[in-house]
Amino acid sequence: MRILLVGAGGVGAAIAKIAARRDFFELMVVSDYDPDRAERTIAWITEKHGPEVAARFAAGRVDASDPASVAALAREHGVTHVMNAVEPRFVPTVFRGALEAGADYLDMAMSLSEPHPTDPYAETHVKLGDDQFAQAPDWEKAGRLALVGMGVEPGLSDVFARYAQDELFSEIDELGTRDGANLVVRDEAGNEIFAPSFSIWTTIEECLNPPVVWEKERGWYTTPPFSEPEVFDFPEGIGPVECVNVEHEEVLLMPRFLDAKRVTFKYGLGDEFIGVLKTLHTLGLDATTPLRVRSADGPVEVAPRDVVAAALPDPATIGPRMEGKTCAGVYVTGTGKDGAPRAVYLYHVSDNAWTMAEYGSQCVVWQTALNPVVALELLATGAWQGVGVLGPEAFPARPFLDLMARPEAEGGCGQAWGLEERTPVA
Q1: Which end of the chain is more exposed for a tag (fewer CB within 10 A), N or C?
Q2: Residue 237 and residue 283: Cα distance in Å, rounded?
Q3: Left (φ > 0), alpha (ψ -120 to 50) or beta: where does 169 sit?
Q4: Do 235 and 136 belong together in one domain?
């Protein structure tokens, strides 16, 4: 397997660092629009693991907005798999470039949605991933696989959902992805600051777009942002966190492959985060259409959302000032294999102190990066196989969860996952 990693930001760098401990691939080309970021990632691998390990990595420059650039770099290195680790707005071009190069493709976030023009908080319009699934015949004809939504959420959450259907439930009422954390970021003086742990560009897109819910009797529909708040109790010391509806790929992926009466996604944002997002929206600072702005060098055009992203700390750099844990998982309710009501929470927790010590990556980006590496290894060994545009839940869950949890000394990734029985609600 020869991999082109497109993007050497926080998640991309973490993918390379995690992959450096695995031996399933021949070459990983770490690429970015800024080649210095790719070089820094490989330098970290060299220092951590030595030149022999680093010899399986190469740095390259790529323009993720240009399919030809992606395809050319992939062909130059004889790439078999393109791993997309850039922001979702570049999904269409990286997706097209991989197909043009005759390579398989993976991403962690799907093509963007467009709200309904007249009824955005009730009706869907262009949904997350619609553009990619519309191109499935092209991938099938080429005999190539596009594995979409293979991060942590979506990704591991979808694997958990498939596991629940296959091994825990005879009938599923709801597949409810629930994400929460107790993370805190502080400045040099020890004061808590506002610093999103993931790309603010992506966070704005997810949180201010109309959330999508799926019901078997109704199909996909939308609600207002931050709707249906609930307090969810997260494990391993995180505790209760208020979660709200957020637009996310799981709701668009799971119903395509799994049988459930309802599919939801709720994110633990907190009052401060919600307040900031609402203010950005009120001021128009969440917009992606460029505005003409005066500067000392004359008028320039800049998207307000890009200004917000530039003003905030880079999520890849805040790890040393962050403390706490993040939890990703799926709350599943329904009827167990024994015919009795059952409710379980399947989850994985990532501790920032550990990820920083082991990988120099903060826990949110590291947890996201782990799962595509596991998936790539399963594709390399043939444990996962497929053609067309498929989500993680289209593949058997047990090989993934076994490889993820098996100790590193035994060839696994050493990342235990949890299953908590919860009291079914009548």
Answers
A1: C
A2: 37
A3: beta
A4: no
* Token pair 């799907």 in the structure block, residue: 110
We report the CATH number of the domain holding residue 189 as: 3.30.360.10
Do 185 and 139 sit in the same domain of this protein? no
Task: Specify the number of domains making up the chain.
Answer: 2
Residue spans of beta strands (DSSP E) within 21-89: 27-32, 57-61, 81-84
What averages of pLDDT result for each successive group of 10 residues across the chain (426 residues)? 97 97 98 96 97 97 98 98 96 98 98 96 97 98 98 97 98 97 85 74 81 97 94 96 94 97 93 82 85 82 85 76 93 98 98 96 95 98 98 98 97 97 87
- Number of Cβ within 10 Å of residue 192's Cβ equals 11
Exposed e or buried b per residue across 159-185, where buried means at least 16 C-beta atoms within 10 angstroms of its C-beta = bbbbbbbeebbeebbbbbbbbbbbbeb
Co-location of 390 and 301 in the same domain: no
271 and 351, same domain (yes or no) = yes
User: What is the Cα Rg of the chain in Å?
Assistant: 21
DSSP annotation of 314? P
Do 173 and 317 lie in one domain? The reply is yes
Contact call for residues 84 and 107 (beta carbons, < 8 A): yes
Asked if the peptide bond before residue 154 counts as cis, ω within 30 degrees of 0, the response is yes
218 and 357 in a common domain: yes
- 122: domain range? 2-150+368-410
Helix (H), strand (E), coil (C) string for 145-185: EEECCCECCCEHHHHHHHHHHHHHEEEEEEEEEEEEECCEE
Do the Cβ atoms of 175 and 249 come closer than 8 Å? no
Indicate if 275 and 387 belong to the same structural domain: no
Residue 344 burial by Cβ neighbours in a 10 Å radius (0-12, 13-18, 19+): buried
DSSP state of 111: P
Domain co-membership, 397 together with 353: no
